[in-house]
Amino acid sequence: MSRFLLSCASAAALALLSGCGSDDPSTPAQTTPVVQQPAPPAAEPNASVAFMSDVHFHNVYGDFKSPQFAGIPTKDGKNATIRTMYAQLTSTRLFNENYFAFRAALDDAHAKGIRLVAFPGDYSDDAQPMNIDGIAEVLKEYQAKGMRFFLAPGNHDPNEPFDDLEAGKNDFLTKEGKEQKVYATSNAACLAKDPTVVCTDQLMEQGYEKLMAKLGDFGFNPNKADLHWETPFSKYTNNKYSYDEAVAQSAVAKREFEICAEGSGGSYKAAGEAKLGKAYTKCATMMDASYLVEPVKGLWLLAIDANVFVPNAKFDPANPKKFSGYDGAGNAGWNKVLTHKMHLVDWIKSVSARAKLEGKQLMAYSHYPTMDFYANQTEAMKAAFKPGAFQTARVPDAATAAGVAATGLRWHVGGHMHFNGTNDFADANGNYLVNVQSPSLAVYGAAYKIISYKDLDTVDVQTVALNSVARFNELFPYYQVENDYLKGSTLAADIAKRWDRSILDTRSYGDYTRQYFGELSRLRFMDEYWPCEMKEAAMALNGRQMLILSQLQTRVTLAQLKDYPSVLPLTASCAAAGTASSMPVAAAQLTTDWAEATARAEKLASAAGLSLDSFAKITPYDFYGDFHRTVYAGELALRDMGQERVSQYKVLMAAFPATTTAPVKIGDKPSDQNPVHLAFQHQFKQVFAIFKGLGSAKPSDRFTIDLKGKKINNANGAGLSFN
How far apart are CA 621 and CA 278, in angstroms? Predict the structure, then answer.
């Protein structure tokens, strides 16, 4: 039973654990149950858990506690302390409207009878006091309605392992529609008494210790109602669980481990140094906020702190709590957990083994994905787009998925990337691991997951989309002031920040986030991710022109396009000047070749029951928006596109030649002597193949996980796919 713990000898017999009973704080205490005890009954009926990832809660009516700036006065006597619309439209998360989406998700879950809610990290927007106090207030409100909450840390909470008194934001919105800088008091601008900056420690970024003190009631500390609670380091008298001892074990000082620049410290250091062939350096003590809790009989929630803040070149052993001495956790994830938090890996092995022995319904979650979250399209994306595009540095290595699967963990919920998706991994040793990506409430595809066990080998997953959110447009009048200011300003910086005000005409949260992602794509993604010539094509061609261009065969070059600009809206502006052929074809030939390609495109459309002209409804803005929305929302994006649009994309995906030729380059640019169709066909064949892969991934809306059969079964017969 979960209240009784296995002896060290029994643990050794299981060959799962090492160092049982060690006094080394970096070695997890072993808490395996007595094997002789009969397995308890299955979890209580209706033990469904809602998973809400990447809430990024920002307290839109929070108090800066500063006489310099209180926000925007509202008609009901509050002050709106919000970020600008431009800031939102150039960020991979909303800062403001997710406040209302969060409440909508909680209301929806409560109405469905769900009383247990898990958060796979980034529940706050950078752990500022104003935001942490705000989310704590909201959670206490819903606790009073009978709900329980179980937080796991993300890379935004904490942003650094220790307090950052220099943090802040540049883009809070004023009542005049302008930007206001608000920084913590130790920021250089505040120390210099810059009159343009508002200084308040409500914008500092809190580290683990303060977060644990404020949010302990939400899983980080034991609750008397829980049947069991432990950390990777828990040690109970006579190996018997008690609430009083659990409280003592929850103290920060009892939950620390050693981390070094090269890898795990503590009892793991010697082996690491021997393998490396030199001593570990820059070693520091840090907190691990992981915990295991049994809130209802038979259900185990494993909240994993997969943050890995590695000491960096700025690390000062004389001041180890200086936040700047550590790399951020955003790109580390499970890759670094396996090398720098080995105590956590051993503990997960223990928990997984005990769950199996006791028949527990184990639900594990952390902030980070355990495997490729791009539907196995990562390598193709690296080849097609700019270096570093789509944050591919955050994709776990294949060896990482194998390492996590080897712990015995069978399925896991991750967040971090704001994606909706599912993937799985199986190895030759019989290990099987499923990674369920829980989408963010703060982006397009906003949704949460409801997960429950049908039996010990079958997990049911439902995705609840937040299309309708009460009060989602409450702040729109203040954005209108911002839009008016930007349109009226003649400053170059303001002109560059102008955004399409039609977003303020949206009628639902679903429509709002869809248009937000279109603007995010236009204002940021296209520049950051797409090579110049690909960006030009994506932002100039509609679906009809793309289909015709996929069929074009011509000797007319990019350099000659200027002579016939009416045929298609492309130029040679992204190309390098090459040497023209001594036997060029006349530019007028493009008209004939385009007509022949049009005839071929019409046949392709007709064969699919579509008209070629209908493809023109896919505007450039629609296309690249749809692509990026599918990156984030998977099959949820296809549902929004509708059957006709999906059918049109399927035609485009199959339209390109079986083989294509890479364009000739001069340096890192294509030559303007390449034929008009060459670069487009070569590059966009890859783009549409990636698009298809993203929209044909494993089920991510409504599905079951068959842990015994090692497969994921789609439970949504009406779902759309590019297959």
Answer: 54
| pLDDT tens-digit map of 173-222 | 999 999 999 999 999 999 999 999 999 999 999 999 999 999 999 999 99
**What average pLDDT score do residues 429-437 get?**
97
Is the Cβ–Cβ distance between 714 and 699 less than 8 Å? yes
Q: How far apart, in whole angstroms, are the C-alpha atoms of residue 253 and residue 274?
A: 29
Closest C-alpha to 123, from 111, 110, 132, 114: 132
Beta bridge partners of 301: 293, 363
149: three-class secondary structure by DSSP:
strand
* Residue 98, token pair as written in the block: 């997710």
Q: How many helices (H) and strands (E) does the chain have?
A: 23, 23
CA of 126: how far to CAs of 130, 159, 216, 289, 364, in Å?
10, 6, 18, 17, 24
Q: How confident is the model over 656-699, as pLDDT tens digits?
A: 999 999 999 999 999 999 999 999 999 999 999 999 999 999 99
Phi, psi of 172, deg, nearest 5: -75, 150
pTM (2 decimals)?
0.93
Note the pLDDT of residue 13.
Answer: 34
Residue of 455, 363, 434 whose CA lies nearest to 150: 363
Element (H or E) spanning 286, and its range? Answer: strand 284-287
- CA 364/CA 359 separation, integer angstroms: 15
473/458 Cα distance (integer angstroms): 40
Q: With beta carbons less than 8 A apart as the criterion, state whether 184 and 166 touch.
A: yes
Cα 480 from Cα 493, distance rounded (Å): 18
How many Cα atoms are found within 13 Å in the side-chain-facing hemisphere of 346? Answer: 24
Quick one: which of 154, 148, 412, 436 has its CA closest to 294? 148
Does position 640 have pLDDT exceeding 60, yes or no?
yes
The amino acid sitting at 362 is: L
317 cis-preceded (ω within 30 degrees of 0): no
* 3-class secondary-structure state, position 294: strand
Residue 553 and residue 598 in contact, taking contact as beta carbons nearer than 8 Å: no
In percent, the amount of the chain with pLDDT more than 90 equals 92
Q: Which two tokens stand for residue 10?
A: 């029994």
Average pLDDT, the chain: 93
E strand spans, 36-88: 49-51, 72-73, 79-80
* Rounded Cα distance, 108 and 112, in Å: 6
Give φ, ψ of 518 to 5 degrees. Answer: -65, -45
* Residue 698 and residue 616 in contact, taking contact as beta carbons nearer than 8 Å: no
Strand partners, 413: 365, 436
pLDDT digits (tens, 9 = 90+) for 553-604: 999 999 999 998 889 999 999 999 999 988 889 999 999 999 999 999 999 9
